[in-house]
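Intended use. Records like the one below are meant for learning the mapping from a protein sequence to its folded structure. Do not use them to infer anything beyond what is encoded.
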Amino acid sequence: MEPPAATAVPAPEGWNRLTGDRSFLAELFVALNLAFLALDVYVAHSTNGCCEPPESIPIAFSLVGALALLANLAVSRPLRAAGSSHRSGAGRWVGLAVGAAAVIVGTTGLILHLESNFFQALTLRSLVYSAPFVAPLAFTGLGLLLLANRLVPPDSAAWGRWVLLLAWGGFVGNFVLSLVDHAQNGFFYPVEWIPVAVAALTVGWLLLPLLRRTPRAYLKGALGILALAAATGVVGFVLHVAPSLTDTRATLADRIIYGAPVFAPLLFPNLAILAALAVWDLLAKEWVDG
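Structure written out for the chain above:
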């Protein structure tokens, strides 16, 4: 007598609603990233004895903005079956306010980082060795994602393309960061070229779906490229952290603050998640060629 065939256990209805609401997932992505940026900015600004009053602004904003978004999500569908959409009512204005403020914080940070050295010398050397000028644009990108999540209908293909555009812009910034950061030590280790090459590959691959419909196979290939980018970031994180854990000539805090930027490689898996969300949306809405 043959054993009975295994039957698939259906996912809980609430879980299906959650994973099917890509606008909600994008909002959660922004909230979690804002919360993490508070730690990232604190560590980055600690290199010069954090924190001067202007340097405290992005930290405070990250915490307040993340809490506001998480509170809105907690009372919205699909977490609350009887709740309203996170995009409507008061939640709409929370998103617009936090998004606009994030754009302002990021743009102001970009100017202040460039002003620290680059605007005084206007040379490639001053650009490489100034404060990481692209880093504050993480706030700008998250702010624009929030604004798009409020202003673009989530059931349209335009929503996925806007999210993909912002993820693509993030990878452009990541390419610049990888190039400039590793140029500070003259690419001493050949493996330091790998994140530059992977970022360039990802930027090139994701550009085509922004310009036109692509075959379904091309979009699925994009998921493979994004998996490669995520793996690159995880390996980079390990390589950045390892010296801080093995070198005993200074305290662990000093090794993290003054060593290789430990969180920088995590931009790769972070942006890969956002881009994969956009590709998933385009595939689900059949925004393909043929």
